[in-house]
Amino acid sequence: MISTDVLVIGAGLAGLTLAQQLKRQGRHVVCVDKARGSGGRLSSKRVSINEQSISFDLGALSFTAQSPGFEQAVNLWCEQGHIVKWLEHDNYAQYIGSPRSSSLTRSLADDLGVHFSVRISAIVKTESGWQVFREDNEKDVLYACANEIVLACPAPQAYELIPSEHVLKTQLEGVNIYPQWVAMFALEQPLLIDDLTVNSNAHIAKISYENSKPGRNNEHNLHIYSVQASVSWSQSRLDYSKDKVIYELANELSQLCAEPLLIKGDYAHRWLYSNGSNLSQSEKGFIASHDLSLCGDYLMKNDLIDGVEAAYLSGLALGRHMSQLRSALTVG
Hints:
By secondary structure, the protein is an alpha+beta fold. The chain contains 8 helices and 16 strands.
């Protein structure tokens, strides 16, 4: 069993940013994630098509730096080689992971020694702190004891873990996190569209030409496009099969192009928790009590900042808050 000062549940950019700060503050922190690797929405996928290995971005197709705080972090990550500038779109630089989308979170996770494939099933408050249980062969097994817990996972998952009597439970009741379908198409010929297309119609939110991203492996001689469906389109097709989603998104894509789609391979993935609105209670970008806190992009998102940047700023803000709170308690 693990014993730690702070347990962070979720190894996306918000949880990793927070955990790094806590580590710098000298606190003993353990970060866990139910997935087999880091990334969350900064993830990539590798598939085999005609005996060729194809890689593409499955989460955020790119991201920008709108705030000074995030721009400083982006510049550092560029210097370290974890991300690179891709192109300019609407007067903003678009950044991607290098050599793949998950490179940034992989580096952060390696520094922290994140525990992967750990599905937390329950957290229980006791007189001495928190008991944390994990799912193991359909049973709840005591996994860790912690003084504090941070839920850096999607709001619906955080809501299920928060005990019913805890004060933070009601603050997540109004949060809406919407799904999103993403598809990859491997084509024989390139399309006559921009390398990054945003909000092309009511059904497609983004299209990226993966071959144009620097540092990516293009030895397969195919033209790879990642297509993100819109929230409304994804919601109305939440329970569709992957084959049906691929068929309909291919049809939507074909309507944007004059040339026919000569598809050699495809892939689809449903993000169950992707897009959400921010909470009116979370002006600071996080929610915190003395021993249980929440961070994530949905708590920082606004009209200018969302996605990767919102996740980073939320983790950063909570880390600073926890540092200030600890300093105040020490002085007191």
